Automatic annotation (TrEMBL):
SUPFAM superfamilies assigned to the protein according to its UniProt record, in alphabetical order: Ribonuclease H-like
Annotated protein name in UniProt: PREDICTED: uncharacterized protein K02A2.6-like
Signal peptide positions (record): none
Residue ranges with Basic and acidic residues bias: 270-282
Biased composition (Basic residues): 209-220
Region (Disordered), start-end ranges: 208-282
Gene3D superfamilies on file: Ribonuclease H-like superfamily/Ribonuclease H
Matches recorded under InterPro entries: Retrovirus_Pol_polyprotein (IPR050951), RNaseH-like_sf (IPR012337), RNaseH_sf (IPR036397)
Organism per entry: Paramuricea clavata
The organism's taxonomic lineage, starting at the top: Eukaryota, Metazoa, Cnidaria, Anthozoa, Octocorallia
Amino acid sequence: MRPTELPKEPWTELAIDICGPFPTGEYIVVLTDYYSRWPEAKTLITVTSATILKWLNSIFAQHGYPTVLKQIVIKKHVLTAQAEQKDWRESLPNLLLHYRTTPHRITGQTPAKLLMKRELRTKIPAISTVDQPTDWHEEVRRKDDNEKSKAKAYTDKKRHAAERKFIVGDKVLVKQKRKNKYSTKFCKDPMTITKINGTQIVLTDLHGKQHRRNSSHVKKYWTTSEPNNVEDEDFVAESQLPQSTTEETPPDSNPNIPIIQPDPTPLRRSTREKTVSDRLRY
């Protein structure tokens, strides 16, 4: 598991996700700020580049343009509204308000405070406070790192995950789709790593064609002349198999093993006269 690093400031790295279609045939486009967790959402009947860009431009007109926009929590809200027999379209703005004014579990601050440096006023009575220059941004970063480290440790332990170490030039085997029950999990032809970008690996096959895979979909390829890494238990070279240093002793020449002689007495068969039962006679 690789947690996302907290950006240096709000509204620099955003994530966009499209949920749907829902039973009404509509979609929800969600935009989230990685730093403040500030959400924006829009209901769309048709999901096209033109409709999404039009909505994004209206959002960027309020908060400005980000430096990074990545493609990722709102479907649960729609299902909950349907279970309560409510119109989820009308309750969506209220959901966004509650989310923006609720302290986040990881940061400990509300998305509104981290993005706008002020709390939004809601119907719930609250004491009005004015922020003084403090180092609460450092506190947010510390809490974010701490919570993500806990989540990573728990997930890695549960999945028995181990970090894969690759370098450019390594030969690896790539996972393939199983066509039948005789198909192997990995392709038999090794590929060579030409570029590594985080968990993304660029590979070149024997024909010179490039492929892009996640590091979890590849494993190192070892030959019998190369030393095998202990961490890669998927393959063990033939030369590393333990060899017996002593010759096996035939069982007959081992004095500790008793020799069983066959019994010369032939099997004795019954000499009783066999008769047919009366009920079987006609």
